[in-house]
Amino acid sequence: MTAATALEARHLVKDFRGFRATNDVNLQIREGEIHAIIGPNGAGKTTLFNLLSGFLRPTSGEVALFGERIDTLPPHAIVRRGLSRSFQISSVFPSLTVRENLLVALESPTNLPKQFWTPLSRLEHLGPRADQILADVGLGDAPDRLAADLSHGEKRQLEIGISLTQEPRVLLLDEPTSGMGSEGINRVIALVRQVARGRTVVLVEHNMSVVSELADRITVLQYGQVLASGRYDEVRRDPRVIEAYLGEEAHA
Ligand SMILES: Nc1ncnc2c1ncn2[C@@H]1O[C@H](COP(=O)(O)OP(=O)(O)OP(=O)(O)O)[C@@H](O)[C@H]1O
Question: How far is the CA of 23 from the centre of ligand 1 (A)?
Fold first, then answer.
């Protein structure tokens, strides 16, 4: 493994009672890149994310973060090593404001699931960092809104903000644009670009125009295997990929 590899899967296998959902996956995510994982429904994208983030143990194979194995560690220990996953691990408290959600997350960044006992008034020393993260995720003008009142897209922004409290070097985003209209999608594209500054981002994404806008490289999964991996422009011309997945778009 080279120094420039942030996250690596080696011969990763996951069996569910005899069904092989991840089949000998080798994957190299380079430090600083935005890498999209795509593939048809049931191809094994979520299972792969679960394996990379410690939510599932592999049947065999290894996962390494900056050269060190993490596949035997629980999710919170993986977070401490610098890998966070948004949308799955971060829980927004609807009855707190946007800023209070950030304060609570900053107080206990790796406490999963989160519990908080500290009065919010004692967390004010974390305010400047909370405000910085809110600005980074585009919620700088909404600190006092209740999380319950946020739109779908704004909630995603907050969830990414909560992930950023963990200071991840590698951020996994699970379908960040799902359920959004074009305005929300454009906001998420800008947001992912913003949070990718100085860190590595891996996303599962179904929307191919989002993938083409954001991804430096992509990996295509099919039947739990890597069908192709490389730069978007190269991979999209691969006949096997067109057949398996992109063809659906090309013929649309
Ligand atoms: N806990 C489980 N037990 C049994 N089978 C599972 C389990 N989790 C996933 N699978 C199976 O593994 C395969 C891959 O599922 P996975 O959710 O990883 O695919 P995906 O690419 O994320 O799909 P989608 O795009 O629809 O979200 C599917 O056939 C699914 O039914």
Answer: 13
